[in-house]
Design goal:
The protein is an all-beta fold. It has one domain. Helix content is 0%, strand content 26%. The protein is built from no helices and three strands. The chain has strands spanning 12-16, 33-38, 55-60. The chain has a three-stranded antiparallel sheet, with no helix packed on it. The protein is globular and about 35 Å long.
């Protein structure tokens, strides 16, 4: 099954990192995406204050799998 989502290059998506997945430094993004880890003070989507959590910011590069 192909991916039903179409992304424009430069699209940003956020994912909350689950510590049961291991160390955040070992996270590898899907092909076609760049990723960086962050601990924002505010929820990246709602803008509400949050407690300390790791979030992954993924940016689509346009590279196809």
């Amino acid at each position: 099954m192909k991916n039903p989502y179409l992304y424009e290059p430069g699209t940003v998506r956020w994912r909350r990192f689950n510590s049961s997945e291991g160390d955040v430094r070992g996270y590898r993004p899907p092909k076609g995406w760049d990723a960086e880890a962050d601990t924002p003070e505010y929820h990246p989507i709602t803008g509400r204050p949050i407690r300390y959590q790791w979030w992954i910011k993924e940016t689509f590069t346009g590279e196809t799998p």
